[in-house]
Specification:
This protein is of the alpha/beta class. Helices cover about 30% and strands about 20% of the residues. The chain has a five-stranded parallel β-sheet with strand order 4-3-2-5-6, sandwiched between helices. A five-stranded parallel β-sheet has the order 16-15-14-17-18. A four-stranded parallel β-sheet has the order 10-9-8-11. Helix 3 links the parallel strand 3 and strand 4. One of its GO terms (biological process) is L-leucine biosynthetic process.
Amino acid sequence: MTGKTLAEKLLSAKAGEDVRAGDYIEAQVDVAMAHDITGPLAFQTFEEVTGGEGDLFAPGRTILTIDHHAPADGVQAANNHNAIREFAAEHGAHQYDVGDGICHQVLIEEGHVAPGDLVIGADSHSTTYGGIGAFGTGVGSSDLGTALATGELWFRVPETLRFVVEGDLPEGVYAKDLILRFIGDVGFAGCTYMAAEYVGSTVESLPVHQRLVLTNMAIEMGGKTGLVPADDRVARFLEAETGQAVELPAPEDRRSDDDAEFASVHEYRAEELAPQVSKPSNPENAVDVGEVAGTDVDQLFVGTCTNGRYEDISLVASVLEGETLASGTRMVVVPASGSVYRKLLATGEMATLVDAGAVVQAAGCGPCAGYHQGVLGDGDVCLATANRNFPGREGSMESSVYLASPATVAVSALYGEITDPREYDGLPRFDDHALAEVEA
């Protein structure tokens, strides 16, 4: 029999048996997450399954966040927030409130997820957790509600679509450019119900905050999960973030076997890649930045669970230091967590952004989903570090959203039009910047 993929290994461990792609299994869940939009419906299912008298399968590993309509943008949102608070208080779930941050950022930086875990979230970008070697996947509210009661959920073990990148990334090219290129190559549905696995010397060299970008956007090509094999860099990152030592699975359990079977393999040379921009209105519309350079931009948006981490916003601040936004443009910045927000304050980078003309807001998901905090109007053109650019995603159905890396967004802010970031000298490179490193 052939070897196993990383996805097959992770799910075999949680099913308690040897499983292969295509098998249907019941698997033990390690961590379950819901937020202010998906939580209330999940709670209804939980009450139906338990008859209103049951307990959570693991209160300390049930994580509830208030992040989408945060702060509340209306009465219904406020009521949903109260439902989250009340359920958490009644059942002992771990709850994060307004301003604490986006679910996927908070679960990692607060140490709720570890390599090898099976994490389900009632949010499609729960694929993010694969950036530290966990099997993270999004589920519906009803499935989540059932799992909250039972601690188990059924899965079909996915095939694996493998992306291999070798070599050194050129100046101005980041993980966001890699994933946009991958999505452009395989298409928006090219990885449907598969695991997207990212390997090669280029991926191994990426700091953890950039690995999370790859796994976060696996869903933008239909992926059931996204996976980067965990390594010592992940262990060091998590230890610095949480202050606790992290034990990695055995080496053979955190990578695919050499003779594993993949649905397909896509190979790249890093030095041949250019900065990417996804044109409206689908992430798969990825092109080299030169094809859209010169496109006028009304709004620049920096944030989301994809690129709202400290390193992303710090890069933008470094480009804007001593500068102002191009005339006629506006910039909305939304950190991915309260910890990121405080770090920007501590380092003085918050002041840099504000002095340049940016509006910095409380951590959350508002602009990305078009709820509040900076939605687009008719005819507006936005260049965003977000993950989706469907019609109406960030506001008006008559607006246009382009997706790019923080570097491309930052440099474009200086000119008011989409600009190749390689035209800017001295773009910073970041290694792992654990939030705990700058607390003073």
